[in-house]
Amino acid sequence: MVAQRFSGFVYNKGAARARHVGEVTMLLKRALTAGLFLYAPACFGQDFVPDKGDSVWVALCSVLVLLMTPALALFYGGMVRRRNVLSTMLHSIVMMGVVTLVWLVVGYSIAFGKSGGWFGSFEFVMGGGVSMKEPYLHAPGTIPAGLFMLFQMMFAIITPALISGAIAERMRFGSYLVFTIVWSVLIYAPIACWVWNPGGWLFGKGALDFAGGTVVHLASGASALAASFLLGKRLAVKHKEPIMPNNLTTTVLGAGLLWVGWIGFNAGSSLAMNDLALQAFATTQIAAAGGMLGWLLCEQLRFGKPTALGAASGMVAGLVGITPAAAFVSLPSAIIIGVIVGIVCCLAIEMKHKVAYDDALDVVGVHGVGGALGAVLTGVFASSEVNSVVADSLKTNGGRVGLILTQVTGIVVVGLFAFAGTFLILKVIDLLGRLRVTEDEEVQGLDLALHGESGYNL
After folding, report:
1. CA angle 213-61-319, nearest 5°?
2. I need a surface site. Which of 171, 201, 285, 345 has the fewest CB within 10 A?
3. Do the Cβ atoms of 56 and 144 come closer than 8 Å?
4. Pair 341, 321: CB distance under 8 Å
């Protein structure tokens, strides 16, 4: 059975059902293509037939990942003040429209076009060459290329939405849109190419990131840190005024929906309904539970009271931590990862008070720290007994220590690139226009000042 790691995920050629091309043809294809990266089904005189089970699974998971963006809107929306609830939720919802088009026009091609290591090609611009009948050109699997493009689109949508939690209550809406468009093209797509593209340089080094610990969470966390520094603190934070969440019930509901959607996020990244999908499903569920309990324990020991917000934040932290490791680690390891990340992220959110940056909704402490720590723990706990790809990565890196160093290399490069790139993009936007709302607009609230609406008319 020829195992192939592809696009940061794992694809098992042997899992393709014999009914697709016939048992004899499948065995011949394995023999002829073992050790090769590409093959063309047509060259064997057989038309590609998508696996219906795998296709339905990935389509369902795509919907679940898309659900995570409105869930994130609820999660973030409940934590801000009443006068900013709509603007905060809109920051997430609008990405469903904006990034969908950006991804189709150029983002997907940069991320998954033929790459020499750092940047994809422009072969899939405007959806050209993305077939709804044939597999992904550079690493054929059992699902159509169009479905693969759509699944990846959902990741591209939620990633810049995550950043919005750091800049809540003080950024101009137009500037936010320009930033997310440029960021998706120049920051997210290249990082996705490095880690998930079969030609990406981190992919070639054997870095392990099953579903986006570095690509999604570390990148958004590092970018959130840069945005927080550049935008400065909210007026209320400067004046040391209390900032009370407007509705924690929606935050808790949003967190629960994120947990459900995250099953598609991680388990769907197998790109097939196979043992790796089930492994990722199980580890995701377990790590979320561990993260929640770890955070609550931390709160109990520090403050004497576990909170609902802590439970919601802890489950998200556990989910962030397991994302890069989902189909690479055992179930007991998932518990350890969840608990460790939950506790560390609970402590990490205090950094903003010591370093003096205003990360409004703790994107840095949860997604940045959680994504980086999850990537390191992936290197520590990844097991070849769970996934044969781990054995290849260990061999490529000369053992466990080498693999961990490769994971750290990915963290450092991705983190620095995202931070510096975000800072530069926002600085240019600020010079050409204006990033931050006026003091009067901030006091009035962004809902009325920027959108002429109110979230609650009571």
Report:
1. 35
2. 201
3. no
4. yes
- Yes or no: say if 325 and 213 are a contact pair by the CB < 8 Å rule: yes
* Burial track 282-292 (b if 16+ CB lie within 10 A, e otherwise): bbbbbbbbbbb
H or E stretch including 164?
A: none
- Assess contact for 407 and 202: CB atoms under 8 A: no
Regions of the chain with pLDDT less than 70: 1-46
Alpha carbons 287 and 380: distance in angstroms, whole number: 16
- Three-state secondary structure along 118-132? CCCCCCCHHHCCCCC
Q: Give the ranges where 94-218 is alpha helix by DSSP (H).
A: 95-102, 108-112, 145-163, 173-183, 189-196, 201-204
pLDDT of residue 350: 87
pLDDT score at 351: 87
User: Which residues is 5 bridged to in the sheet?
Assistant: 10
Give me the residues paired with residue 171 across strands.
436
Calpha distance 137→112 (Å, rounded): 9
Looking up tokens 């050790």 gives 35
The token pair at 343 is 């506790």
pLDDT at 7: 38
Residue type, 20: H
Question: Global pTM?
Answer: 0.89
DSSP character at residue 183: H
Task: Find where tokens 């400067």 sit.
Answer: 238
User: Is-contact 204 451, C-beta < 8 A?
Assistant: no
Distance (Å, whole) CA 436 – CA 331: 45
Q: Looking at this protein, which amino acid is placed at residue 88? A: T
pLDDT of residue 46: 58
Measured distance CA(344)–CA(339) in Å, rounded: 9
The per-residue pLDDT for 431 is 94
Specify the 3-state DSSP secondary structure of 12.
strand
Query: Of the candidates 232, 211, 225, 228, which has an alpha carbon nearest to the alpha carbon of residue 158?
Result: 211
Whether the CA torsion 154, 84, 315, 358 is positive or negative: it is positive
How far out from the chain centre does Cα 12 lie?
23
**Burial of 158: CB neighbours in 10 Å, binned 0-12, 13-18, 19+:** buried
Contact status, residue 281 vs residue 100, Cβ threshold 8 Å: no
Say how many CA atoms lie within 13 Å of 451 toward its Cβ. Answer: 19
Query: Which residue in this structure is represented by tokens 């770890």?
Result: 294
The residue written with tokens 């137009």 in the block is: 174
Residue whose structure tokens are 């050109």? 137
From residue 210, alpha-carbon distances to 109, 266, 387 in Å are 20, 7, 11
